Amino acid sequence: MSLITPDFGLLFWMVLIFGVVFFILAKAGFPVITGMVDKRSEAIAKSLKDAREIEEKMTRMNQECREIMDQARREQNALITEATETKKHIIEQAKEQAREEAQKIVSDARLQISAEKESALRDVRKEVSMLSVAIAEKILRRELSSDRDLEEYVSTLLDEADKMSITPPVEE
Q1: Contact predicate 140/152, CB 8 Å
Q2: How would DSSP label each residue in 105-127?
Q3: In terms of Cα–Cα distance, which of 59, 80, 53, 54 is closest to 67?
Q4: Per residue in 62-105, pLDDT tens?
Q5: CB-CB contact of 74 with 66 (8 Å)
Q6: Contacts of 143 by beta carbon, 8 Å cutoff, 6+ apart
Q7: CA–CA distance, 103 with 147 (Å, rounded to integer)
Q8: Gap between the Cα atoms of 67 and 65, Å rounded
Q9: Whole-angstrom distance, CA of residue 128 vs CA of residue 124
Q10: What is the pTM of this model?
């Protein structure tokens, strides 16, 4: 027997053992191995499918998040604009109210000044009248010390009063 050329019997038994081992492996080992490989392939495929779905969900969620953020920014801008307009409106109302109050105060002050002016003029007229009467009384007492002078003065005043009432008003 030589190492390089095997014997026919050895070759037969080697082929037979190989066939038996192959048959056992084909019946018991390969199905388990291929089943595990198939399960692994299915698990990998399912994982890839799940990963794609998750990626799609993440993309949708990112898009929704962007939309929500954009909407929030729009609402924020709208609120800021509304607040600014409200602030301007309140300021304008306050200014208008201040103007009205100032006009009312000025008007009241003018009315009060006018009333005080009229009152002062009445007081001055009253004082002037009282002084005039007092002066006239003193002058008349001095000049009309006699009854005759007094009668003449009274008749003169009556004549003047008659002339004033008789004279018709002049029309222009």
Answers
A1: no
A2: HHHHHHHHHHHHHHHHHHHHHHH
A3: 59
A4: 999 999 999 999 999 999 999 999 999 999 999 999 999 999 99
A5: no
A6: 149, 153
A7: 64
A8: 5
A9: 6
A10: 0.41
